[in-house]
TrEMBL record:
Sequence ranges assigned to domain Solute-binding protein family in this UniProt record: 94-439
Residue intervals passing through the bilayer: none
Species assigned in the record: Pseudonocardia zijingensis
CDD domains documented for this protein: PBP2_NikA_DppA_OppA_like (cd00995)
InterPro entries for this protein: Peptide/Ni-bd, SBP_5, SBP_5_dom, TAT_signal
A Pfam family assignment: SBP_bac_5
Name of this protein: ABC transporter substrate-binding protein
């Protein structure tokens, strides 16, 4: 079997998921995970019916795992429970799932052997034709994940248990791409009402769906990888943080995430709760529009970074949930290479502005999406205040999501503050998607970086890919095309009658092994 390869995505998936919206892979037990507060596995005294109630902050309005919202946390969480993938990410490695093995006999050819004991929720067998259909559907969909398959040439079958994927050029991200591809039944998923109550092959099946409110799932007891521990799941949308936490403390819900930093210390003292902490794929950044003066000058961008005290930001705003970043991706992501942090040095910032001919400072603006993260206004205000100290007057512009997206995509902004998630756990998903000249996400073009990222995407040599992404991290960091102040940690909370939960670096954990003590 070939070693795990990594994913490739470029533009459109950034449109539909940003910020605190994380996306999932099913990676369990990432090294470095820890339980922050203890308690025996069944010590809460809350008997359960075998149905686990999960509260999420974002609403689920659509159940198509290949559609326009395919990369959002809520769709990924749903898909993780209801649909299978050919390949899974587990403990940082890409491992067999519905595909038992694979080979790469030619640089542009991949052959996958499928399990023959997988059935859909209606009892019919899952075959290679279903897998081929799913790859084609995702590649052709109006979806943020479609660009994963931009190099796809052909997908065929060789009997009921063999899938053959051909690409136009070598693609080192095929396996990781497949870890995101949810399998759908050929000939059924195109029905107009299919996604009202979709059929999957995963550990749970859909029994009821009220868009924007809740989703009910029942255990698929004949699941090929073992029946789920819980008899069912109830996924509820509770966007207001205080309401979610109150529901958790009362036992109305048994699992929720993410937790605001200012609540964690108090929750840790609650003997009826268990808190989990894990490295994450999520980071914050402040982009500069590198095509718009004065941010065409890297000295100005570097000056803006030297004005930011990232350590104080962590201590004052994210004391329980973040660390100072050392790269344009988090330390949990494959391809991470630590860079030397920009020192907080306002005088150095003023000197750089003077070198750029801006000794008197300048006036600019900052946009952000008001709903992206609970702390985003606080972070924006901190940045604006810090820049004022070096003579840069920044006009804050807090926008509704639709307006923010429209302006972001049109490059109609000076600076943009947001969060982002490397969904696949592989650097290509962020670096190769957002920072190429062709992507033109922030008016930045660098032919050397393009070459580095193209080489990393096409290589199937993981050591070579890691080296190249390290160089990409260095280029972006030194050019200061953005400010990457912090990387987040992922945190979850359960009631103490919940067993079998494992924290993940993203917001779409697998719940097949999770149950409530009865």
């Amino acid at each position: 079997m070939h070693p795990p390869a990594a994913p490739a995505v470029r533009r459109r998936d950034f449109l539909r998921w940003t910020g605190i919206t994380a996306v999932g892979l099913g990676a369990l037990g990432l090294p470095g995970c820890s339980v922050l507060s203890g308690g025996d596995s069944a010590s809460g005294g809350r008997g359960g019916s075998g149905v686990l109630t999960v509260a999420t902050q974002r609403s689920l309005d659509n159940l198509d795992p290949h559609g326009p919202f395919a990369a959002t946390e809520q769709i990924r969480l749903f898909g993780q429970q209801v649909f299978d993938t050919l390949v899974a990410r587990e403990g940082g490695q890409l491992v067999p799932a519905v595909a038992t093995s694979w080979e790469n006999p030619e640089p542009t050819v991949w052959r996958f052997t499928l399990r023959e004991d997988v059935t859909w929720h209606d009892g019919s067998p899952l075959t290679a034709e279903d897998a081929a259909y799913s790859v084609r559907r995702q590649a052709e969909a109006d979806s943020p994940l479609s660009n994963l398959w931009s190099a796809l040439s052909e997908v065929t079958t060789d009997g009921p248990a063999t899938l053959v994927v051909r690409t136009e050029q070598p693609l080192g991200t095929v396996l990781a791409n497949l870890s995101l591809l949810r399998l759908l039944p050929a000939g059924k998923a195109d029905a107009p009402d299919f996604f009202r109550s979709p059929i999957g092959s995963g550990p749970f099946r859909v029994t009821s769906f009220v868009p924007g409110d809740h989703l009910e799932l029942a255990a698929h007891t004949t699941y090929w990888n073992g029946a789920p521990a819980a008899g069912g799941l109830l996924l509820r949308s509770i966007p207001e943080v205080t309401t979610r936490i109150t529901a958790l403390e009362s036992g109305e819900v048994q699992l929720t995430w993410p937790l605001p930093s200012d609540q964690i210390a108090r929750l840790r003292q609650n003997g009826d709760l268990r808190l989990y902490d894990s490295p994450s794929y999520q980071h914050w950044f402040n982009w500069f529009n590198c095509s718009r003066a004065p941010f065409t000058d890297p000295r100005v961008r570097q000056a803006m970074w030297h004005a930011i005290d990232a350590e104080s930001l962590v201590a004052n705003v994210f004391p329980e949930t973040a660390a100072v970043a050392q790269a344009p991706i988090t330390s949990a992501v494959f391809g991470f290479a630590a860079q030397r942090p920009y020192a907080y040095d306002p005088q150095r910032a003023r000197d750089l502005l003077a070198e750029a001919g801006l000794a008197g400072g300048f006036r600019t603006s900052l946009i952000w999406n008001r709903t992206q993260a609970p702390q985003i206004r606080q972070v924006a205000e901190t940045f604006v205040s810090s820049w004022r100290e070096i003579g840069v007057e920044v006009v804050p512009q807090e926008l509704e999501e639709a307006q923010w997206l429209e302006r972001l995509l049109a490059l109609d902004w000076d600076m943009d503050l947001q969060t982002n998630v490397t969904a696949t756990g592989d650097a290509d998903y962020t670096l190769g998607r957002l920072y190429t000249s062709a992507a033109n996400r922030l008016g930045y073009a660098n032919p050397e970086l393009d070459t580095v990222l193209a080489g990393a995407r096409s290589s199937v040599d993981q050591a070579e890919r890691e080296r190249l992404y390290g160089r990409a991290c260095q280029i972006l960091w030194e050019d200061a095309v953005g400010i990457w102040p912090i990387e987040m940690r992922m945190n979850f909370a359960t009631t103490t009658d919940v067993t079998g939960f494992e924290p993940t670096p993203h917001e779409a954990p697998e719940l097949r092994t999770v149950n409530r003590a009865v």
